Amino acid sequence: MIALRHSDVADLNAAARELLAKQGRIGTEAMSVDQRDFAVGDRIITLRNVRRLGVLNGTFATVIGLDHDRRALLVRTDEGRELVLPRWYLDRRSPFDRRRRLDHAYAITCHKAQGMTTERAFVLATDDIYKEWAYVAMSRGRLENRLYLAVDQHPLAEELDTPPEPAGDAALDLAAALERPRSQYLALDQLATTDGTIGAPSSWAEAGDTVRPTTQRPLRPTSLAGDPQRELASLRALHRACSIDLLHAREQMATQRPGWHQRRLLNRAITSAERTLADLDRQIARLEAPETGVSADRSATSEVASTGTIRHDPPRYLLAELGGWPRTQTAQTVWRIAAKQINAYRAAASVSDPKTALGPVPDTPDHRAAYDAIARFLRDAAAAIDALEGPTPPDPNDDLALPGPL
């Protein structure tokens, strides 16, 4: 099952587990981890990368044993590996680490479903889904993909004193949502205002004065048919102004602790500004290299589209080698660089195995040297991502830190 909201995922997991418990398909004895009960037979998903244990963010497994004395879980991954999840992986927390390490996997978000394929996928549709999300969610099943729409009144309809509204056609609303993309726009089209000036993205205006970035630098729109040097200077000035606004928005997000509504608008404004900067970068690069003409702009557009595809729906071999999409910006940069190196090696070595990133070890000395070099690079990249994503786990050779075998 796939859903957009984390609250819906939690509800679906609870309902599925309750049904399985009534049918006797999971054990009666359970271990509680982060207010979640796990028993033998439970489907789980790991949420943190710890390569020393052999688990990545997004590893699916089944619980096959419990050790209450050592507080550890014995699990078997979908690849057939048996692993021990010790106490320090399940319970260890730092003041800055509040994410779960483990969760049930009967229902997952579309982000966790990226790169996976199953026999049948059951997708829950809500009023905030969009075209790209639905495409990823509805392409996970090999044999069947079903979309479910829950039609009901607002949960607070009886408590709120509001005039009744005519009920709309739920099917038409769903069809409209599936056609609604979250596409990118050109910077000049996105920032052009009715008074002929260029200002901040509209999402900042929606956020209100309390979360509006302090920098407002109206600029005259440039003409694509005008002087290239003047156009380049205007685009660079716009790029600096937009970068400053983006910095202020991120500072407000980190320091002012806005409410959930303002935080949502700030996130939307930050995303809009990042897309604007990407568009400006492409236009500046086109003007700085006029001899390449249209081919340079098409190359940049193709690279951006390829990066977005890898991020939102990475192949299985990238997930196996690098794990899921990191949380921190620096780790995301390392992840993208490593993914490009892997794809370049696969193209040069004609590797087509969808499960492994580098394929079999070559026999010839020259190819073996290239294989060893990229393997060392990926090990360093994986270590860098783990270090940037969170605290270093205890040494598995330390007998005091790890439990013994079950």
What can be said about this structure in brief?
The chain has about 400 residues and is of the alpha+beta class.
Intertermini distance: 32 Å
- The helix/strand order is EHEEEEEEHEEEHEHHHHHHHHH
Strand content: 5-15%
List low-pLDDT spans.
Answer: 188-225, 291-305, 398-406
Structural class: alpha+beta
Q: Main sheet: which strands, in order across?
A: 7-6-5-4-8
Helical content class:
40-55%
Could you tell me the number of beta strands? 11
Task: Give the number of domains.
Answer: 3
Shape: globular
What does this structure look like?
By secondary structure, the protein is α+β, with helices and mostly antiparallel strands. The protein has helices spanning 6-22, 87-91, 131-137, 170-178, 187-191, 202-207, 228-255, 260-288, 294-312, 316-322, 329-349, 365-389, and strands at 2-3, 30-33, 36-39, 43-46, 60-67, 72-77, 82-85, 102-104, 108-109, 118-125, 141-149. The strands form four sheets. A five-stranded antiparallel beta sheet has the order 7-6-5-4-8. A two-stranded parallel ribbon has the order 1-9.
Write the topology of this structure.
Blueprint lengths: L1 E2 L2 H17 L7 E4 L2 E4 L3 E4 L13 E8 L4 E6 L4 E4 L1 H5 L10 E3 L3 E2 L8 E8 L5 H7 L3 E9 L20 H9 L8 H5 L10 H6 L20 H28 L4 H29 L5 H19 L3 H7 L6 H21 L15 H25 L17
Parallel strand pairs: 1-9, 10-11
Antiparallel strand pairs: 2-3, 4-5, 4-8, 5-6, 6-7
